[in-house]
Amino acid sequence: MSENVARRGFLFGGGAVLLTAGCTSNEPAAAPTTGAPQPAPAASGNDQPGTKVVIGFSAPAADHGWIAAIAKNAEATAKQYSDIEFRPVEPTNDINQQISAVESLIAAKVNVLVVLPNDGQQLNQVALQATEAGIPVVNLDRIFPDKLAYRTWVGGDNYGMGVSAGHYIGKQLQDKGVSNPVIVEIQGVATLPLTQDRTKGFADALKTYGFSVTAKQDAAFTVETGNEVATSLLQAHSKIDALWNHDDDQGVGVLAAIKEAGRNEFIMVGGAGSANAMREIEAGTSVLKATVTYSPTMASSAIKLARLIAQGKGMSDLVENQVPQSITLASETITAENVANYRALGFES
Known about the structure:
Blueprint: H1 3-12, E1 53-58, H2 65-78, E2 84-88, H3 95-107, E3 112-115, H4 120-132, E4 137-140, E5 152-155, H5 158-175, E6 183-187, H6 193-207, E7 215-218, H7 223-236, E8 242-245, H8 248-261, E9 267-272, H9 275-283, E10 288-293, H10 298-310, E11 326-328, E12 333-335
Parallel strand pairs: 1-2, 1-3, 3-4, 4-5, 5-11, 6-7, 6-8, 8-9, 9-10
Antiparallel strand pairs: 10-12
Helix pairs in contact: 2-10, 3-4, 5-6, 7-8
């Protein structure tokens, strides 16, 4: 168990989940118990059993609620199909170990790979090796810089997350007649392109209301740092009108700091769409009023796409004969009014 997971469980009563590698059965399975939803079976002819395919899967270690849900969603979707043999490798946060794991899948001659790299740049070469070996790669979330390294990319819209958060906050403040608001932003890791995209989207959306961010600081996607950063920002600003926190996992720490400080004069928006964030929103007893999605259900879609690619099929709702080269999921805004529609998709932080 990682320190982050242990700390999260200690502070907030959450349970830790241990993931195991190895081939999975294709028999029907019970829904996952970690907040990762059992994807609904699709109704198209593409879901009829076809050519048997072996799907290799590699992702980082599940020391973060979102990553744990990625692995669970991938496995749950693979189990829906009798023609899929799901072959995950041991999850790891070590770049070299992930490269070795992917190389082992290439050597095993799997039919298709689904890879969420720890770092797209550093795993680009091994993805190219797979492609050159005739194994198509479905690149999940963190993108490989070389388009020759993957057949299809599927992931969330980081810029769109910022836009969604910015519009929600902008409209709320505008409707309240707030002028010159104090808007605080708690990022994930400031140096990552995905964080920079989220920040830009937020700034661009706020600008349409004549607003801008007063202060921002990154919190490294952890509960502990989220708590520390939020505490610091709360101390620095005696009055805040709105806060956007990029990540619901670190948001557990952010909310704890807000409650500890007894602050409730502002509205908060989260990021990613965790189950615990949805419960806070639904209860209506805290400053958290919305969260913008970056759903780990993208892993379910990646498995479905990998199966179609390996079987030489396209997407039944599209005219084209082949699966698209990239698919970007929309970032949706979850509020008390629509949370019931998203509850089943939440993941536990």
